[in-house]
Write a structure and sequence with these properties.
This protein has 2 domains: about 100 residues, Beta-clip-like; about 80 residues, no CATH class. It is α+β, with helices and mostly antiparallel strands and about 210 residues long. The N and C termini lie far apart (about 45 Å). Strand 4 and strand 5 form a beta hairpin. Helix 7 runs antiparallel to helix 8. The relative contact order is 0.09. The chain is globular, with a radius of gyration of 20 Å. The protein is built from 9 helices and 8 strands. The longest helix is centred in the last third of the chain and has 20 residues. It comes from Haptolina brevifila.
Length: about 210
Amino acid sequence: MMPEGTSFAALLDLLGRVKANAFSFTNEDGCVVGVACHPRAAILNHSCVPNCVIAPGPGGRIELRTACEVQPNTELCHSYTDLCAPTRLRRLRLQRQHGFVCDCSRCKEGAWAGGENVDDAMEAMARPTNGCGVADAHQREVEASEAMLMRAERCADASKAIALVEQALSVRRRWCHPLSLQRYQAESAMSKLSLSRGDHEKAAEC
């Protein structure tokens, strides 16, 4: 409860501070189960190439775990946003949610894998069609799969939800680049649904 006489502006300011600095925690199924404020951990800055991660610890505490070898006097940074998103979306979300434009090495120089720009791959809609004139049809099919995923989110019947996600995932596996955000979203939806039903084998396939 807020003290009596607290102004609406002060309440909004407090909520903004909590939103900017609180940590959310998920269970083994990837569902958010709580939010907590840890002032010392909140001083850590962001990077899209983080060298540490924050994880829940025993007794309501949190643990800071390095994700790679860290040299002495190196700043520890973790990620404030979804790393499985292209630079354009990461920067937009960080600016909207945290009020800054990220200028980390990944945002400035990009990320490359096998000589391929990962950002381009993540936003790729479909495989090249060699000028055969069917790219538009493939794109419409991929876009239609978005409606399937949205229907699955609202579906109370787990079996029907899985059928919708399977259909959407089939489309995106067929036409989307393996690193595309569209494919990642469908794979993630299938993984979460499978975990919620205790089907760990199917979740591991995503």
